[in-house]
Amino acid sequence: MLRLKTKGFTLIEWLIVIAIISILLIIVFAHINPLRERDRATDSRRKADLDRISIALEEFYSDHDCYPSQETFNLREGLRPYLSQTPRDPDTNEPYAYTPEDSSCPQYYRVYANLRWEDDSAINEVGCEVGCGPDGIYNYGTASPGVGLVTEEIVTGCSADIDGEGACWTCVSTYSEELDDFVCACNQSDDCGQGIPASFCFTESTCGGNRSGPMPY
């Protein structure tokens, strides 16, 4: 009876197979990054949480003619019966950043969150691409009807004074309740670029100015 001899893989063939598998895995992970997909999943929850919170806050206002205080909002069951439990950030389990009007009967509110996936188009859609909320540390949020999110866009205008030294205005776009619009609040800086990326400096701007000139509001 004739027997056929089988030949196993050589070392070089094994190395080629491993290399091909490694390349395929790199391609797959480049298109399906598990960490990115996890971030997108938690971000979807954050958006849904803020939607639910917004609906509950409007129902609260309809019954009380005021929005809840920050203390009430931060309680786990502070929005009952509108929400059995107030949603919290899925990563930190901390309350979302709620900033109502500073009043015993708030007439507006803003709620902020941080999306992990920084390329999410929703960040630009709400105007938070350079930061929103207290200290500009958030990149997503929602607000009561007719009220915008507070953005912390830093704009600088640099020019030379009479001695040829650099002078800058550091300007922050801030929402004005009185004017119902964003205004440019500026502070003078003696050192052009001090604590400010050079890419943000430019010569001509409505927020730009010179130390010897008027405040550029």
Topology:
Blueprint (H helix, E strand, L loop, with lengths): L10 H21 L2 H31 L5 H5 L22 E4 L8 E5 L7 H5 L14 E4 L10 E7 L5 E11 L4 E9 L11 E2 L15
Parallel strand pairs: 4-7
Antiparallel strand pairs: 1-2, 2-3, 4-5, 5-6
Estimated structural class: alpha+beta
Number of strands: 7
| Overall mean confidence score, pLDDT | 74
Q: How many helical stretches?
A: 4
Question: Unreliable segments (pLDDT under 50, ≥5 consecutive)?
Answer: 153-170, 187-217
Taken from the alpha-carbon principal axes, the silhouette is elongated
- What's the SSE pattern? HHHEEHEEEEE
> What's the helical proportion of residues?
25-40%
Whole-Å distance between the termini? 100 Å
Largest sheet: number of strands, sense, barrel closure: 4 strands, mixed
Share of β-strand residues: 15-25%
Strand order, sheet with most strands: 6-5-4-7
Tally of individual domains: 2
Task: Characterise this structure.
The protein has 217 residues and is α+β, with helices and mostly antiparallel strands. It folds into 2 domains: 34-143, no CATH class; 154-202, no CATH class. It contains 4 helices and 7 strands. The chain has helices at 11-31, 34-64, 70-74, 121-125, and strands at residues 97-100, 109-113, 140-143, 154-160, 166-176, 181-189, 201-202. The termini are far apart. Mean pLDDT is 74; it is low at 153-170 and 187-217. The strands form 2 sheets. Strands 6-5-4-7 form a 4-stranded mixed β-sheet, with no helix packed on it. A 3-stranded antiparallel β-sheet has the order 1-2-3.
